[in-house]
Known about the structure:
By secondary structure, the protein is mainly beta.
Amino acid sequence: MCGRYTITVSMEELMLWYLIEDTTIVHYAPKYNGAPMQSIPAVIHDGKQNRLGELRWGLVPSWAKEDKIGSKMINARSESLQDKPAFRNLISTRRCIIPADGFYEWKQQNGRKQPMRITLKSGELFSMAGLYDIWMDASGNRLSTCTIITTGANSLMADIHDRMPVILSREAESEWLDRNNRQVPDLMKLLQPYAAEQMRAYPVSPAVGNVRNDAKELVDEVKESAG
Length: 227
């Protein structure tokens, strides 16, 4: 499961990385503890170019009766994407990227859970593969939402959790976003665990467990609890 993440780079860095010329995000601020049901930065392709905007984290299928279902769809397992009604039609038409520079997972040790932050060793921005959909309520109000795709853990993550978000390689980003690409078998091949040797994990403060906390100190490394 991927239920918390960080995106601490500037808007300029985001736009440069994804070759964005303009954005619909009016009030951008770094997220040190991004959580489900929040509006988060996301990148889609409109058929001509990449666009950066906000999607609410927790997918609400277009056919859902109410939007509460979103809290149960923050992640989508790559192995069963094509079997789930909420996701299977989105693979070919509504793919997105959730930019991040880290994510959190809780490691079971000494009878307690130690929060860990997982990043690339380079500290660079990376792209989590996602799907999005647009839901409309009875009054015609649109709600755009997303889910983060997960896969099996690599050797680094296996010691912490059995799942991890799909992190796309730099080369795969454009292939995943390209709206003209509807080759589902090829797209599914992109949903692999990222190379463990290019990642690192370190312990952070238990304060990250509270979604109300969103300060830069949350990403600081701490001494692992002895229990």
